[in-house]
Please model this.
Amino acid sequence: MGGTVVIKWGGGLITHKEHLCTVNSEVIDSLAAACSRSDKKLVIVHGAGSFGHMKAKKYRLAEGRVDGIFQNDAIAEVRSDMLELNDLVMQSLTKHGLHAQTFAPHTWAKGTGPKFEGELPVCDGVTVLFGDVVADSEREFGILSGDDIVFRYATELPDVERVVFAIGGVDGILKIPPARAGPEDLIEIWDPSMFFEGDHATEIDVTGGIGLKASRGAMIAEKGIEVTLVNGEYADRVLAAIEGRAVIGTRIVAGNP
Ligand code: IP8
Model:
């Protein structure tokens, strides 16, 4: 048994991002199976994918209250869609023998970005969180990304060994957008001084895509915690990353001080 590993299940990995509220159950099951094979204490944070970003984008929820747009129904719907996705994640974890407990961020967190307020809930088994619409003191509400939740858990729990970002469609951070990239374009070790041409679907995504993961990853690495980004479609890579074994992916390191 080791320390704690914080793992993000990317929203684009566990859902079909282009089709509203469609889940990728196969991937969820394979991630749950990989997690069940490790004896680490796990904090799992999942993203929103098509259960969050599309409606949040349409009703401009990341901007908070916007005059002239009726946003209340959308806030309630996105929260309920996220609970539905979370329920599917929880069912899969339970099916794979994991004792997990979930803590919906809108019930305990306030504010967005890495400095959001709220005491981080933890349980004895697997602690599960997700990106959500939360209250905000200045803008009334906003979108709290799972990547910011990962940052806070990774840097505030006492015994975190490493952080794993499991993402969809790519093997890690690539030098050029995935559509043009070959295996030689995988950046094996990335620090913030290195440029990469990320492929961020701004027309769908209301949070930061791979750029936010890289940035939060570097902030976590600065605290001396290992950070790896892997292709979550390969369960063996996810398990290897959780256990700290060599794996195809990107290791994120802190930049030069
Ligand atoms: O996918 C976004 O969380 P993320 C949450 O982890 C919503 O950035 C509701 C869009």
Residues 11, 47-48, 52-53, 56, 78, 82, 131-133, 143, 145-147, 206-207 surround Isopentenyl phosphate (CB under 6 Å). Helices lie at 11-14, 25-36, 53-58, 72-95, 146-156, 209-221, 235-243. The longest strand covers residues 160-167.
